[in-house]
Amino acid sequence: MKIINGKKIAEKIRMEIKTEVARMIDADDKTPHLAAIIVGEDPASQTYVAGKEKACKSVGITSSVYKLPENTTEKELLELIEFLNNDAEVDGFIVQLPLPGHISEEKIIQSIDPSKDVDGFHPVNLGRMLSGLPSYLPATPYGIVQLLDRSKIETEGKHCVVLGRSNIVGTPISILLSRKANPGNCTVTICHSKTKDIGKIAATADILIAAIGQAEFVKADMVKKDAVVIDVGIHRIPSDKTKSGFRLIGDVKFDEVSKKCSHITPVPGGVGPMTITSLLQNTLKACKKEIYG
Ligand code: GUN
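That is the input. Now the predicted structure with guanine docked in place:
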């Protein structure tokens, strides 16, 4: 069994980004600039945004964060988005989700200029991805594709089972892996909360992607021998063995599944580090106008 070391692969890609940003700065090109908007005090969102800022700094990308109070109105948020859409200094920006209940996430996502939508959530970017046109790929699916690619995992003709159909992970990764591309050319099955016999279907997968949002949902009897297992889940559970008082686990019961599969991503240190790295790659593409010319 091989551990797919997402931390190491992400570090390698970040070095490549850093080299390219340094080259651009040397050539007096523009320095890439990522902005993030966060509304309210959600602790997980604050951690994500702080991680993004730190990652930008580590590769030389300029980052700015707009912290808005919980009671920000939808109109105020739309005005800030309009400002960033028109700010030539900013190459790409994200609005951290979830948003407070009184703000429509759909409306907010649709107000972002697709050419600056480095999260790849705007329907225009999703539609371009569906059509095989250049687009910003959502960070987590993009990260998974790169993990498979850089770990030299053959995908062509393989049966890939995706557990979960979220807009952010399950649906886009199923599209990406079924595309005529490498990685890609998989036969894909998507399972979700209404799927019958989910365990039996999962056990037919050559490549199993667990993005179902339930801690340790995938047990050894749901995994085919020598399958490739990608664990997208991240759950904090109390622990008396760590200083922080908690530890992280995934959607896969690692101890038993790792004994049966050929490759597996650990939690932490698998898919997670790739997600922010993909966002940095999208920001670089935005600055170089690689997607929208
Ligand atoms: N919340 C959790 N993941 C993400 C992400 O990738 N982008 C944004 N904008 N919000 C998130």
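The longest strand covers residues 33-39.
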